[in-house]
UniProtKB/TrEMBL annotation:
InterPro entries in alphabetical order: Beta-prop_IFT121_2nd, Beta-prop_IFT121_TULP_N, Ift122/121, TPR-like_helical_dom_sf, TPR_IFT121, TPR_IFT80_172_dom, TPR_WDR35, WD40/YVTN_repeat-like_dom_sf
Organism annotation: Caenorhabditis brenneri (Nematode worm)
Name of this chain's protein: Anaphase-promoting complex subunit 4 WD40 domain-containing protein
Domain IFT80/172/WDR35 TPR span(s) in chain numbering: 724-851
Entry-linked Gene3D superfamilies: 1.25.40.470, Tetratricopeptide repeat domain, YVTN repeat-like/Quinoprotein amine dehydrogenase
UniProt xrefs under Pfam families: Beta-prop_WDR35_2nd, Beta-prop_WDR35_TULP_N, TPR_IFT121, TPR_IFT80_172, TPR_WDR35, Zf_2nd_IFT121
Species classification: Eukaryota, Metazoa, Ecdysozoa, Nematoda, Chromadorea
Residue span, IFT121/TULP4 N-terminal domain: 10-203
IFT121 second beta-propeller domain: residues covered: 382-690
GO CC, alphabetical: intraciliary transport particle A; non-motile cilium
Amino acid sequence: MYKESNGCLNFAEYNLNLGSIACGGSNGLLNSIRVALDPKVMRPLSYKLTSNQTLEGHQFTVLQCCWNEYTQRLTTFNANGVIVDYVVGQNETLYENMVNEKKQDPPIRVAWNRLGTRIGLVYADGLVMIGSEDGGPAFVRQFDFQLASFEWAPDDLLILGTAEGTVKVFDMDGEHQLDVYLPCLEAVELEHALAKRDYREEIVRMSYWCPILMSQLLQNRREENEQKRRDEEKERNSLGISIFSNYRPVPEPNETEKESEPVQPVPPDRPRFMVAYSTGVIQLMRNLVDREPIVVRLPNLTLSDARWSPNGAFLAVCGSFSQQTGVHQCLYFLSAYGQIIGFHQQPGSPFNTVSWEATGYRIAISSGGRLIIGQLRPQYKWGSIEGTLVYVYQNEEPFYYTVMFFDYETGEKTTKTVKYFENLACYKEHCVVIFREEDMSYHCDLCNSIGTAMDYVIVNIQPKFVQVNGVAAVIASEDRYFIWYFNLPKPDTFLGEKMEVKGESGEYVLAEQQRPVEYGTKRLLGSKDQINSMCIGDTFFLIALRSGGIYRVNLSDGAITHKFAVAGTVEAMKLNCDFTKLAVTKVLDSAPLHLYIYDFMSDGALLQKSFTTEKTLIMDFQWDTNNPNMIAYKTNKELPGEIFVYDGASSLKQGVANGFIYSFENLVVTSVNLDLIMFNPENPSKNSRVDTMIKAKSDVETMLYHGRLTEAMEYAEKSPHDELWSMIAAYSVRNHHYDTAEHAFVKLQDYAGLQFVKKLRNISEIGLRNAEILAYEEKLEEAREMFVLCDRKDLAIEMYKELDDPHQVSELLKQDNNEEQKIKAYRNLAEIFYEEMDWDESLKYFKKCHDIHMQIDCLVRANQFGKLEELVRNLDDDSEHLEFIGDIFSSRGLCDQAIECYLKCGLPKKAFDTCVELHELQKAQFIAESHQLEGVEGVLAKHAEETVGENDENSVTKITTVGLYMKAGRHLEAAQIAFEVIAKDRKSKLMPLHDLKECYVLGAILVENHRQGVQELKKMEKHRLLTDALSDESGLTVEQTRILENTWKGAEAFHFMMLAWNHFFNGKYCFFYIPEILSLPERIQDALHTSVLLADYQEYLDPVEIHQMIALAAANCGQFQICSRAMMWLEAYEGFSDDERQAMKDLSFELFSKCPPVNPPNSKMRCLECEGEMNRYDFQCPGCQFKLPICMATGKPILENTSWVCRRCKHHVNKYEIKKWTYCPLCHDTEDFKL
């Protein structure tokens, strides 16, 4: 945008917080303007001047201005030395704040510090004045050297540039701190030294980059808006309407969000301080003491200004460029490391100053009487594959980048995060993403359209240039290149077969491959040339050199085959679709980025220029995807973003579009607005893509729309293109102009189209013709309705069959009576889902077509063995699939299911073998006995004998035998051996009581497992063939029968013995959890209750210990009748000696002479069953013989009607006592324990 001024503009400064521009110049001109531009549109020539405030206060030429970003003040001075300060009001209008009318020589530089608390005024004679925010002086110092520039350091140090070109640093007290190291002054250009001996470097600009703070004005606005939001929320809550609205509270911004620091990370090695000289020399430093600064020299440039971008990543440098053809005004864009990344030049008035807008996408340039606002086009890393836009943006986390894959058709987004991103290249269906590793190598990923890596390679070449085709990628630095042949699956095969590779990957050095070649008398291609651009074909690629010239290199061996003398520096180049033409943009004769088109002659050995654009800035270009002669390019010839198309004969303007050219296909130029996308890269919009139809296609479309078919034919004959004939053919078929349609199909060489026209001629009914035309135009729903309306559903079915769409075929066949076609359609659907590995849907349609084998396959692949078991139950006994299903169950260790299948199909021997193989020997024994199988007797015994020996009496060996029987499923035999081992150890009295109880519990659990296994076999047996064999006592020995009858008795004996000791000795002999400590009378009574129980377990316990415990507990409880009976038993015990027996009698006489052998009156209670009287310490009513249940937690009888019963051992516990336990007191079961 150009804004004319009546006078000369000396400066233009952007306000980075508000976006306004302060510009001023001759005759006291000073304005604050605002340009309206939606940053999300970024459309050329969309700038509009919305405000233009003229600021009063100057009568002379305004030389310079400076914004105070934090306090929003504008300080200006004119040629007469008058300084005027303005302040921004609430409505963003500037008001005069302070004026210094002291007329003197004007300062050379005015600058505010970063916090806006100090302002520095520097004069050429060495006077430095530092003022406070309110205008008072804070520091005044007259130096003894002349000054040329001034800048603030971040820590409020004063950086002074002298007239001799040196830079000195002082503190706020005027103390000298250091002299900045300036190697740029030590290497003065030779021609300058020869031209003028007293030549001095003049400092034009010094700048120390720092992030810009958010202004107080914007902070106050944010706080006001936040307070307003809170008040509205409070009012909404008080009125009770928040639940009826869609109001969603906005989270309060944290401290990091309130700061205006840039979100992009700043590398620690990035330069921040800049010194720019008028001779085009720029020194970039990381800090003021940097001893290895970067020196940039721009030859033939008279530099007038240089500025950091708002994020500190780029530099804008403006000035005048002297050439043989004259002086041009130019603008350079440099990276923070000094690399030239952009260039613009134009004739006209000198560029005085340049200023960046806050987003970094626009700049303002003061040039003579014009204010130029330019829109920048960043060099984004982007590409396109299969309708998917691929672009890269930087994350907030330092050094991390996101590669976005955005599908325009579906709107799907896929991201790939990489660290140290380097480069990107795309080709049709894949792309190459390159990022740097920590060890300074480069990782190259070959990705598809959803970011999935299909192959990779690691190279040691810096990937400054990358190109890729269907079989290989070329990664190049400035002096070498690497050819990578990747492994890519074929798109038309499911198994992923590899493409044939015609070469080997390898690294090649440019200097070793090239040979000295001279064209005429000037050597264009030398061994020190550097690569400047690159493009790739099918079997070769092209390298453009910085000094001019292009190499053609074979992909197969990396050898240079041809050398083309092309003058000028090639910036970019692209090959057409058949690799016969080359389009390049290059800088030649001071005219940047002209487009040149070359034809390959003599089988690619020569290049011949066929087209060029003169005096036109080329912004972008793209070859047609199908037509090798057509190319679309964008220029700034009349309007920014104009699209031209060159068809091999002429170049015509087609329209204006914003953004980069995405593709050129079928006479449509597709552009993508990456500027719009980058404002919100995480959520790209489909609106960022714009299609521009070129004039030929739009004209033919208009003719056909108005029915002028003859004119359209004539137009296509004059300007032939396949897309135009396709449009005419489609229109002619739709309107039944068959002769014209045939002509168009002949032009297209479309034999199928000719056959279709022939088919239409043979159809007499107009409705069927229209249906066929709709099907040809892929309007399938309308064609289907038309076929059904014409009572030709069969043609609709045939149409979908040709399209291989079994879904629609099955829908059309739902009401059809042709079962054969239905089954065929269902099978096609099932096979489609089967290939997609959707086993549930595939199973559903295989059921409909009655394919049992494939149903089994789907169930197995889906791991749905429960449903497979249901399928077995629905099969007939003579089904051929039962044995196959049984094999499946057997191979997966499902013994019960396999036995059911084998028995159902009459294969007991196979069922027996399966049980043996899976170590289910109990089930194997039952099957052998019920089916009277021969040769299978004693399988378990033989196995056990081979393992432990037949007559081995060792207890350890027998315990091993128990484990063997347990693994084999012979739990009853395992229990029998376990009980034998326990009986031997019990008699020896060498094993503690708690260990004996655990052994008896183990044996009892094995018996219960035996019972459970028998019940499961009964449930599994559907044909009642094993009913007799599976009875609990069939075929058992006497010892095994006794074990079944007294399963838990041994465990009960030792459990009650330990319980009695715990009651009597107050838990001192405690082998299990005691919930609480009882009082003495209750504790002794509980001991008596438990001791009386022990009288029934004399088979397992020592009877002497039992009666001694009863006598002792009864005597302490006052139950002397019970004590008398116990003492009488002890006196009659033959195991005592005469002296022991006499001692018992003496003790009894002494005790019962004082305490008669009768029970106290309160020792009676009522029977719960017959209400008769019974002793409190009896467990069975003498009248009705009712036996009270015993609580396994306390050893006392349960007098309530309800109690807790263990599911494993079937023993009772008082319902109040069980709350204190977390497992069964007897068998310690926890899995089946429930309150």
